[in-house]
Amino acid sequence: MLKARQLKKKYNNLEVLKGIDLEILEKEIVSIVGASGAGKSTLLHILGTLDKADSGEIEIKGTNVQLLNQKKLAAFRNEEIGFIFQFHNLLPEFTALENVCIPAFIKGDGNAQKKASKLLSTLGLSDRAEHKPSELSGGEQQRVSVARALINEPSIVFADEPSGNLDSQSAEELHKLFFDLRNELGQTFVIVTHNMELASMADRTLEIKDGVINRDQ
Ligand SMILES: Nc1ncnc2c1ncn2[C@@H]1O[C@H](COP(=O)(O)OP(=O)(O)OP(=O)(O)O)[C@@H](O)[C@H]1O
Ligand SMILES: [Mg+2]
């Protein structure tokens, strides 16, 4: 599904990633752990093509993403990649349903509304579809952002501390949801987390330390 080779990233004099090699298989759920400042978010953004490495290569579903121009990369990202952030980044002026629809509208999908409604219902949010984010609980907002990440049926979903802001019950429900989605829709998940329970549920855990990945634990 994803191969990365010798990814390096520096911010000024700070070498954050010093040569990351990794391979993620289809339908795998991989967790990424490491100390604060270790470079987890940096790596996730680079793998998800939101940011660029200084050097190294990334191949996603056989496509070498460095070779895509801006426009092709944006389309590739919108179709193949889903993101879930710690702070959900929902647009406050739009309803839950509209927020979920946005990536599908961008793609020009005529069935956006129907798909969004179905996803919201799967996530137990049917009766919240017309609510604005401010009218939803933190766990509900996070589930809306999960629906938004999934609407284009991405091959791979990157999540950066998706449950970091949730109480333990909502966190547990969200984690269970990732596994259900993998089983039902066959998606691949790469999840940065401080939550050791979530990390231990994953198929594999990778630790970033001193700018490289310590082999599987
Ligand atoms: N845009 C930037 N400019 C300069 N330095 C940055 C930038 N983004 C991140 N850094 C630095 O790079 C290092 C890695 O940051 P990153 O956000 O990847 O860490 P992290 O492992 O996700 O940490 P946390 O667990 O606290 O979220 C940190 O020392 C951070 O200060
Ligand atoms: Mg981070």
Q: Could you say what the CATH architecture is?
A: 3-Layer(aba) Sandwich
Class by helix and strand content? alpha/beta
**The CATH C-level class name:** Alpha Beta
Share of residues in strands: 25-35%
Report the major sheet.
Answer: 6 strands, mixed
Percent of residues in helices: 25-40%
Strand order of the largest sheet: 6-7-8-3-9-10
Short structural summary:
It is built from seven helices and ten strands.
Describe this structure in words.
Helices cover 36% and strands 26% of the residues. With 217 residues, it is of the alpha/beta class. The protein has a single domain, classed as Rossmann fold (3-Layer(aba) Sandwich), CATH 3.40.50.300. The strands form two sheets. The protein has a six-stranded mixed beta sheet. α6 links the parallel β7 (156-160) and β8. The mean pLDDT is 92. Bound molecules: adenosine-5'-triphosphate and magnesium ion.
Write the layout of secondary structure elements.
Layout: E1 2-11, E2 14-24, E3 29-33, H1 40-47, E4 55-60, E5 63-64, H2 70-80, E6 81-84, H3 96-107, H4 112-122, H5 138-150, E7 156-160, H6 168-185, E8 188-192, H7 196-201, E9 204-209, E10 212-214
The structure holds adenosine-5'-triphosphate and magnesium ion.
Which characteristics define this entry?
7 helices; binds magnesium ion; binds adenosine-5'-triphosphate; six-stranded mixed beta sheet; alpha/beta; four-stranded antiparallel beta sheet; 217 residues; Rossmann fold; 10 strands
